[in-house]
Amino acid sequence: MNVETIGLWAGATWNALNDANCTLSVKGLKKATKLKEKELYAAIGWLAREGKVNVEATETDVEVTLL
Length: 67
Description:
Elements: H1 3-20, E1 24-25, H2 26-33, H3 37-49, E2 53-57, E3 62-66
Antiparallel strand pairs: 1-3, 2-3
Helix pairs in contact: 1-3
């Protein structure tokens, strides 16, 4: 995997969040993006590092919201 690939995954994740216009769980993002869990977490990390998402752990999942 390379930086360009992770950037593509981040774009797919951002688009899914933007299209949903709400907070999505990791489970919801996996369904919306068709990414594997490791790929999705790499994408979320990319977006979090860029300050584009808020990530919050709940009792049962992780929720991601666009900023």
